[in-house]
Design brief:
The complex is a heterodimer.
Chain A: H1 2-26, H2 31-54, H3 59-82
Helix pairs in contact in A: 1-2, 1-3, 2-3
Chain B: H1 3-34, H2 37-45, H3 59-67, E1 77-81, E2 90-95, H4 98-101, E3 105-110, E4 117-120, H5 126-135, H6 142-164, H7 181-195, H8 197-223, H9 229-235, H10 255-266, E5 272-276, E6 284-290, E7 298-304, E8 309-314, H11 321-334, H12 340-370, H13 376-406, H14 414-435, H15 438-473, H16 478-521
Antiparallel strand pairs in B: 1-2, 1-5, 2-3, 3-4, 5-6, 6-7, 7-8
The chains are: A mainly alpha, B alpha+beta.
Chain lengths: ~80, ~525
């Protein structure tokens, strides 16, 4: 349970930040609108990542479940950051 | 959903629920009470003061009275909160020269008619203390701690939906009164959870944004804004006034006219009036208020008083959506967008969530008790913690109410004593809970809380009967409303204590009759 909690908090936090950054790059809105939408989306994303983590059989599976979307989202972050 | 996924989620739901339940109960209980914090504050202050009737002093007059005879630090701020429906007094926060005054600022409560200082705002701590118990537990970094509790609460809600998903519609109002106690508890937990779901989701999300926004703020400032925190805050609608001190004493006469002008423009008196460099030629004024007829739309105007030039102006047309979004969430969170009736509904829902937490803990305890391999020590610890965090916190709040009323207004460090009373009661409850049986503790706590609240109302009348009569004649009814609320809660607690006593007696009689019939049947 402790390992799953670690995944839930750490991967969930990183995933939500990454999603929020992507929304900021992708949404064709003003910066203040993007910031508030990002905030409203980020926390539910974090909570969903927690659900994914805790519903896993083991910490390894939890890392896999949360890790894949995190890696994909981070690649998009890097792409936009470099572009 | 696969069976093992559901099992894992149910396990996590139970364990995390147990771990966060004490703090979560405190958040919801204190939050529900602090929905009425303006009323509690008025109840604290009003009976202790004689009512003055007449014309209300202007903002500029109050400013002069607030700084008179005090080591006012003009290079900092002077903040005035005008009287409103929620608070009949002027509140003035005067920044002081720390070397002379020994503190950074003083918060004054001023009579709007005579301008007399009624007392320091911090003296009447109860309402603010309960609110901070909800917000940050009155401890350093409590905001972040409660932020993470809220995050786990959000997880609990989502996992609860998934666990209950198949029966969410079919068993929406299922409550099996004839079945065993576990089914009853489970039904109660599910029904409360389902009914309060939109409310709890809103609370979880808004609570997270209030408490943990710092995480995203840091991430954005570092990645998107390349470390420029000011630019981020500007986009987020956080404005600050910066004016240069000129060392030229000057008293502006146009303060009241400007306040009046913007009150008329936006349809509401400013909620906050903050002066910068007050008394200097460079004086600037910052007004914050609500725009009439719009949901959670605030206006902010900052002006240079020398030429009335606008430093910045935010209103319905020009504003940051972040600021507006957070204001909207704040209105939803505190139920500030409608009247007292909505706050009563919020209160009932808040207390219902407290019941949700308690039933959740009871379900966990029952389940553990039935498992042969489960540690009975863990069951005892959880039972003990649940009792302290629910009954203890409730009783401590009642004692804090009594302390707020009984302590003399002129007592030095009065606020500290109210907090000591709360903490002492909580610690005492924890100690007593170790030695007393669960049922006796339940009955005793409810009976005691009821007696304390009744004593509070009685003390009101014994100490301040004359002022209360004057308040009644002046049509100021908030203190009486609060008394009625306390009276209702006291009656409710008394009824619960009575019912629990009856239940205790009947279960004892049942056991006695069963054992005597067993003896009769036993072979000689």
């Amino acid at each position: 349970m402790l390992h799953k909690t670690l995944v839930a908090i750490l991967a969930g936090c990183l995933f939500s930040i990454s999603i929020m950054l992507n929304l900021n790059y992708l949404l064709p809105l003003n910066i203040d609108q993007k910031l508030i939408i990002g905030l409203l989306v980020a926390f539910p994303m974090w909570a969903i990542a927690m659900v994914m983590s805790y519903s896993s059989k083991s910490a390894k599976q939890a890392w896999k479940r949360c890790g894949y979307p995190l890696v994909v989202s981070t690649f998009i972050n890097v792409f936009y950051f470099m572009a | 959903m696969k069976k093992h996924t559901l099992t894992n989620l149910t396990d996590a739901h139970g364990w995390i629920g147990i771990i966060i339940s004490s703090l979560l109960f405190t958040i919801f209980f204190a939050g529900s009470v602090s929905l009425f914090r303006d009323e509690i504050f008025q109840w604290s202050v009003q009976p202790t003061q004689a009512v003055e009737q007449g014309e209300i002093l202007s903002v500029s007059e109050i400013m002069q009275l607030a700084i008179a005879g005090r080591p006012f630090n003009a290079k900092e701020h002077l903040t005035i909160i005008p009287p409103s429906e929620e608070n009949p007094y002027y509140q003035a926060y005067v920044d002081l020269i720390e070397e002379e005054a020994g503190r950074e600022y003083i918060g004054l409560l001023m009579d709007p008619v005579s301008g007399k200082v009624v007392g320091e705002i911090d003296q009447f701590i109860l309402a603010e203390f309960i609110y901070h118990l909800h917000r940050d537990l009155n401890i350093p970094y409590g905001v972040y701690l409660l932020g993470f509790v809220t995050l786990f609460f959000f997880f609990m809600l989502l996992s609860g939906i998934l666990i209950h998903a198949r029966k969410l519609i079919g068993n929406f109002f299922q409550y099996r009164t004839q079945s065993n106690s576990r089914s009853k508890l489970l039904d109660m937990h599910n029904v409360i959870g389902t009914i309060s779901l939109p409310f709890t989701l809103m609370y979880a999300l808004s609570g997270l944004i209030f408490n943990l926004v710092i995480i995203y703020q840091i991430a954005f400032a570092v990645i998107l804004y390349k470390g420029d925190q000011d630019a981020l805050l500007k986009d987020a609608g956080v404005r600050s006034v910066e004016v240069e001190w000129q060392s030229q004493p000057y008293q502006y006469q146009n303060i009241d006219q400007l306040v009046e002008r913007y009150s008329l423009e936006f349809g509401h008196m400013p909620v906050v009036i903050r002066m910068y460099n007050y008394g200097d030629k460079s004086t600037a004024m910052h007004l914050i208020g609500l725009v009439d007829g719009m949901f959670a739309q605030r206006y902010e105007v900052a002006l240079n008083l020398i030429d009335d030039s606008i430093i910045f102006k935010d209103d319905a047309e020009q504003h940051s959506e972040v600021r507006h979004g957070i204001d909207t969430l704040s209105e939803l969170h505190f139920g500030g967008f409608a009247g007292l009736d909505l706050r009563f509904i919020y209160f009932i829902l808040g207390i219902a969530v407290c019941a949700l937490i308690v039933t959740g803990n009871m379900l966990w305890i029952e389940k553990r008790q039935k498992r042969l391999k489960a540690s009975q020590r863990s069951v005892k610890i959880v039972t003990h913690t649940t009792l302290i965090s629910t009954l203890g916190v409730g009783l401590a709040c009642c004692v804090a109410f009594l302390a707020e009323r009984l302590l003399p207004v002129t007592l030095v460090n009065r606020a500290d004593y109210v907090i000591y009373a709360f903490v002492a009661c909580l610690v005492l409850s924890a100690i007593v809970a170790v030695f007393v049986k669960k049922q006796t503790l339940l009955v005793g706590s409810f009976a005691l809380a009821s007696a304390v609240l009744l004593l509070t109302i009685l003390s009101d009348w014994m100490m301040y009967a004359k002022n209360l009569q004057l308040l009644w004649q002046a049509g100021e009814l908030t203190a009486f409303g609060t008394q009625a609320g306390l009276g209702f809660v006291a009656t409710f607690f008394a009824v619960v204590a009575y019912k629990l006593t009856n239940k205790k007696r009947s279960s004892r009689t049942e056991i006695n009759s069963k054992s005597s019939s067993d003896n009769e049947l036993a072979p000689a």
